[in-house]
Specification:
5 helices, alpha+beta, 336 residues, 7-stranded mixed beta barrel
Amino acid sequence: MSDEWLKRFAVVGGITACATGLAAFGMYKLHRSYRQQYEWKEVGKLSNLMIHPVKACRGLQVVGAECTPLGMKSSDGCIRDRNFAILNGDNSIVTMRQRSALALIRTSISDDGKYLQLDAPDMPTVKVPLGVKVTNDNDVIRFRLWRLEAEGYNCGEEVASWLDKYLNSSDHKLVCYTPDLEPKRNFECPKWGSRASTHDQSVFQDLAQYHLFTLASLDELNSKLENRVGVRNFRPNFVVEGVQEGFEEDNWRYVRIGDNVILRMTHLCGRCKQTTVDPETGVVNEEPLKTLKGFRCVDSSHPDHKGLAGAPAFGLNLNLEVSGTVAVGDTVYASY
């Protein structure tokens, strides 16, 4: 190799190392500013971490994950939370609110990490390639998700036919987000956009990048129910154990997980019919929504009253302030 090429490699290597160092230093300063700016109280431990690769389908429990500005990502980088979504023939989102059978679609990653696998009762496994790149704009589908424009790459006919057969209706399609596409801009939402920062974006999550609640809140709800419900009824990313009182999280302005990740609460999470779908059977019940409506609707003085529009609140919607990795067992802190 010539001296000229060696010089070029040295320059590129130096620039890369410098950029990496500056980025790390910038993240350190940002994290330190949050640590110093707010008073933190230890509130519990992280008991559950969940990633839902396909919106409205069964999620995966993981022991560790990376928190990114577009949502939670698996530690191996293969999958991201709500990175896939199902559309109908009108290019409208399909969720368990319309098709409760989606609760029984299980997701997994192939052993080689190249495919998302979908399984459902009485259906063969279907594989969907991961890491695709958009090469033709005709493969991009534009649709609306909670009043916001979204883009997804059409994952093809094989998985579309699989969905049609399983749901016993036609014209379904699976779309995925890729880095070639524009993410949703949360701050443009006409209802909750004022709670978002201009850097708040997401993939196919509803109204924020992350969702959290405490086991104490779930326990309080279950104390009022004849038949208990579980974590999966509420499809969170984070569940916190060790909190003394139910719904204490309502008052958390910021959440810190472990030594790095910091999230900002945007608003309480309003609950809908989707919570009434039994995640193990797909059967729709009237609970827990009926009971939640009896004690978890905020009054007119609450800042979220208008946005919730009568929906009962359970858990927090959060956007990311400082990226990092998290793991089950991490200490959770809150700033009030």
